[in-house]
């Protein structure tokens, strides 16, 4: 529980209340990735249709994006739809595919005011045209913004991403643009969809599931993990601060002896 909430904001208007005594502003994670899980269970508990949970989850995305921006976090990657989520009933998939348009249209004035840049990772070509257009338009409108990068993982699968990177590298080796000796970790990084982003410092998964579900397998090699039973629509500032506070107490050693 956060005991003492203080009004503390770098931007004045959208004031952020954080517990100054618990959050160390010096080592806020640069990149936070979230597996937003539990929308369906949230709705079920209320005898509502699953899509009501997704709608509520979208409100949480809005709230958490504001907080991340206020805190000066550089990248917030949100797992919104996996390559495996196509297995769900068509009506649910259709609703999930309509969310970017709904979310981005209504949130756009605030995204611009805050200077938030929208990005995405995932197979964009596999998305319905209207979803693709909504994402493309948001990325285009916000491309010169220099604040928080709000990165949606949409039709994203880490294994598919790695397969594509391997194939692209093999083509370059075959046509002589790359030699085998040049293939190293840095080069593989450059062929992934996250080539322009730092690796996540903190991974959060909600809803009590303790797995990665094909999310950023390469990029999470040295990320700190934090799991909570809270369902994504119930995730709030307090839970977010709890995760960041836990992160700040970790000792990141990267295989060495730092801090021992
Ligand atoms: C997360 O909530 C959203 C997506 C995966 C798109 P779920 O829809 O997985 O919710 P649960 O896990 O069924 O409760
Ligand atoms: C992971 O959640 C994908 C997203 C949050 C978008 P799932 O609910 O699809 O994962 P599993 O099926 O429980 O592993
Ligand atoms: Mg789930």
From TrEMBL:
Record-linked Pfam families: Prenyltransf
Active-site residue list: 37, 85 (proton acceptor)
Amino acids binding Mg(2+): 37, 224
Keywords in alphabetical order: Magnesium, Metal-binding, Transferase
First-level EC class: transferase
One annotated Gene Ontology cellular component of this protein: cytosol
Annotated GO MF terms: ditrans,polycis-undecaprenyl-diphosphate synthase [(2E,6E)-farnesyl-diphosphate specific] activity; magnesium ion binding; manganese ion binding
Cited HAMAP family: ISPT
Function: Catalyzes the condensation of isopentenyl diphosphate (IPP) with allylic pyrophosphates generating different type of terpenoids.
Similarity annotation: Belongs to the UPP synthase family.
UniProt name for this protein: Isoprenyl transferase
Organism: Ureibacillus chungkukjangi
């Amino acid at each position: 529980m956060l005991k003492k909430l203080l009004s503390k904001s770098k931007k004045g208007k959208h004031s952020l209340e954080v517990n100054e005594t618990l959050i160390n502003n010096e080592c806020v994670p640069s990149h936070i990735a979230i597996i937003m899980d539990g929308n369906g269970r949230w709705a079920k508990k209320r005898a509502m249709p699953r899509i009501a949970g997704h709608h509520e989850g979208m409100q949480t995305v809005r709230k958490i994006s504001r907080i991340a921006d206020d805190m000066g976090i550089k990248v917030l990657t949100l797992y919104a739809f996996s390559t495996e989520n196509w297995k769900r009933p068509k009506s649910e998939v259709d609703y999930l595919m309509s969310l970017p348009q709904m979310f981005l249209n209504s949130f756009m004035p605030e995204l611009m005011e805050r200077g938030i840049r929208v990005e995405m990772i995932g197979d964009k070509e596999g998305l319905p045209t209207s979803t693709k257009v909504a994402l493309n338009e948001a990325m285009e409108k916000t491309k010169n913004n220099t604040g928080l990068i709000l990165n949606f993982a949409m039709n994203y699968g880490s294994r598919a991403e790695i397969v594509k990177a391997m194939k692209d590298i093999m083509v370059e080796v075959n046509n002589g643009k790359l030699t085998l000796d040049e293939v190293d970790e840095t080069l593989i990084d450059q062929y992934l969809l996250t080539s322009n982003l730092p690796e996540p410092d903190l991974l959060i998964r909600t809803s009590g599931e303790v797995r990665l579900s094909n999310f950023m397998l390469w990029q999470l090699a040295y990320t700190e993990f934090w799991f909570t039973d809270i369902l994504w629509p119930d995730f709030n500032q307090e839970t977010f601060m709890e995760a960041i506070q836990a992160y700040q107490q970790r000792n990141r050693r990267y295989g060495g002896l730092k801090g021992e």
